[in-house]
Amino acid sequence: MSRLKAYLSDPLLKTMYDRVRDAGPVRPISLDLTSKCNLRCSGCYYYAEGMDKIEVPRDDSTFDRLLDDEEARGTNFVTVVGGEPALEPGRLRKIYARFKMNVATNGLIRIPFEGLEEMPLGIAIWGNHKTDSKLRADGKRDLFSAALENYRNDPRAFWYYTVAPGRADEIERVVEECINNGNRVLFNYYSDVSRLGGELDYQRGFDAVRREVDRMISLYPNQMYTTHYLNNVVSTGQLAGERWGYDVCTNLSVDYGPNQERQNNGKPYNRHFRAINADFSTTRRCCTGVDRDCDSCFDTWEHFSWIMINMRKHLGSRQVFSDWLVTMFAFYVVNRLVDFDAGLELLNSAQSELPANHAPPKRQPPQQESFVQPRYLRK
Ligand code: SF4
Ligand code: SF4
């Protein structure tokens, strides 16, 4: 019996594996919907790399042509970024009508529910009310409260919570607020592209953050999209003996000339991916940068892809395979690439029941409501 077959004798793993296979291959792009934003956050890669200088076409003919071309190319999943996508609800609707998608928003403008009922949206938050306000609004506005209000009990919404190395002590209270607002949480790790240093400096390492995130997953397994394995890989930059960076990064625009050397180095990469600029025609190196130093990259979405594409590195033991599959499945659930409700139930079971590497010792969770919570696999 092959190792894979042996691992899949576990009914839960088998069900998740089959659901991912049945969903079929993901052929993703990232797309900047606009170069405008209603905020100017300290540490925003978009502005740090001058992407706001990109000229956005006045009418939608170029945009519509891009969608036609991408559909013809076989694209089936769009990560919508920017700028602030909520400024362009009409373009959001056009993408929603044709593709699976995910939107990154700062949460200040409520994206209409009507007609966009199944659209996953990740609301960016960078700390507790004070930290988030300081980093993203010069301390002048309580952005977190506004976003909580806009997305209370909205089934589409989850918090994309970016934690800085020195701010682990804020995590539990922030997570509680997000959960009490009726939303789930996916962690991200602050890159400090503006080199603010101190508590924000990624060179301090994310040890304290990693421990606290692991604790949150164990405490609230049914409200977390982050898995113990994903937390470990992003925060350590380590995957099966390899170190994260440009040479192993999997989400690089396939038609961006300077990426060719990387694409010929023998490491797996996504052969469909393009990071498309807000001119709706040109591409850049990757979703989160042009010239940016990859040492500062702790982006969760990119690490998801790194894990998912490297299935073969996760066949050495049942435990490692299980860590890989649960993380892959989490990606499929958060992006609604599998049936969402059934997928949440399975992910809940996996997060609660399956042993995970890197998980802290089990503790009794507090009383909580039953709150239901990964493609590159070819058929
Ligand atoms: S909300 Fe997002 S796009 Fe706008 S400035 Fe902040 S990080 Fe950048
Ligand atoms: S900054 Fe871009 S190219 Fe560098 S590792 Fe991150 S996603 Fe990859």
* Low-confidence spans: 364-379
In total, the number of domains comes to: 1
User: What would the principal axes of the Cα set say about the shape?
Assistant: globular
Largest sheet: 8 strands, mixed
Strand content: 5-15%
Average residue-wise pLDDT:
93
Bound small-molecule species: iron/sulfur cluster
The number of distinct β-strands equals: 10
CATH topology: TIM Barrel
Kindly report how far apart the N and C termini lie: 20 Å
Binned, the helix content reads 25-40%
The order of strands across the largest sheet is 6-5-4-3-2-1-9-10
Compressed to H and E, one letter per element, the order equals: HHEHHEHEEHHEHEHHEEHEEHHH
Computed over alpha carbons, the radius of gyration is 20 Å
CATH architecture type: Alpha-Beta Barrel
| CATH domain class name | Alpha Beta
Structural class: alpha/beta
Supply the number of helical segments. 14
Write the layout of secondary structure elements.
Layout: H1 3-7, H2 11-23, E1 28-32, H3 45-48, H4 61-73, E2 77-81, H5 89-96, E3 100-105, E4 121-125, H6 129-137, H7 143-150, E5 157-163, H8 171-180, E6 184-189, H9 207-219, H10 228-236, E7 238-239, E8 242-243, H11 260-263, E9 275-276, E10 283-284, H12 300-309, H13 318-334, H14 340-353
Helix pairs in contact: 2-13, 2-14, 9-10, 13-14
The structure holds iron/sulfur cluster (2 copies).
